[in-house]
Write a structure and sequence with these properties.
2 domains; six-stranded mixed beta sheet; alpha+beta
Amino acid sequence: MARQEINGRKRRSLFWRVILVLLMLGALSVGTLSGYFYASSKAVRKTVSALWQYRGLDVAEAFPGQSSVTVLLLGSDENRDNKKRIYTKHTRSDTIMLAHFDFVNKRISVLSIPRDTRVRIPEHGTHKINSAMALGGPELTAETIREWLEVPVDHHVVIYYRVFRRAVDLLGGVNIYVDKPLHYDDNWGDLHVHLEPGWHLLNGEQALGYVRYRRDSDLMRIERQQKFLAALKEHFRHPSTYLKLPQLLDAVDENLSSSLSYGQMLALAWFAKSVPSSNIQMVTLPCRPGRVYVYADEEKARELVDKLFRDTSARRVSTPLPIGTIQ
């Protein structure tokens, strides 16, 4: 009996020693991995700095005294000459979105603006809205939207499409259902799309072609962009994605310009992670297509802007706004 107890204690002692060794090895592995990430990634080092600066990426610390923030998001294309060199200093904006982050109600509202929308650009007359980027960069685009829609634009972010390709490839591709044949070649815009109907695991080049496809209407293009964002969102639910974060952060950091600090962008991303899908709304500016321009329905556009960008940040709301959501 005594021998059995001694053997039992030895087995239990051995068991806990093994557990302790495994835990130590695990801690060592995590520490080594974290140290590797920190040493090898400039973006990770900046992230650690932001964590200290904004107390865990709290939006209240990153945007003191603000109940909301509105950010202009611009996807910039790059026209090229026959030697594949970027041709213009300020290229036109291929994607235009206005994102409102409501800290009080934990809501994010995103308004997509068709790039061919007819607007008055300050000091330049009437043009398509995407021309504002070429004429005066993101600052002029923000000023144009402020005057046109009478909405505050606090910051801007410009994402260059080369980061789009790299990010999708790092994620291992994105699954998208293509509902019709998409075939288009544009050497000037360095855009080549060849996709048949059905499910596809799109690599970076294919995904870029999918969201930028120009042969049908601007409104259909926005619909594809929103569909792609919903699919991309699903990828960030997978634990394997987190191992790729240093590379993803570096790719974004190297191919993005913004009036926001790196820490503020991370704080907004962390806030977005906490927002329920039912509180993330993506809508398109009410408009009608024409032969050359897209024409905004000014009355409906202002009504929508009031709901998206003004009402919710001023007070708490208990029910969702009556507009579409991403599920």
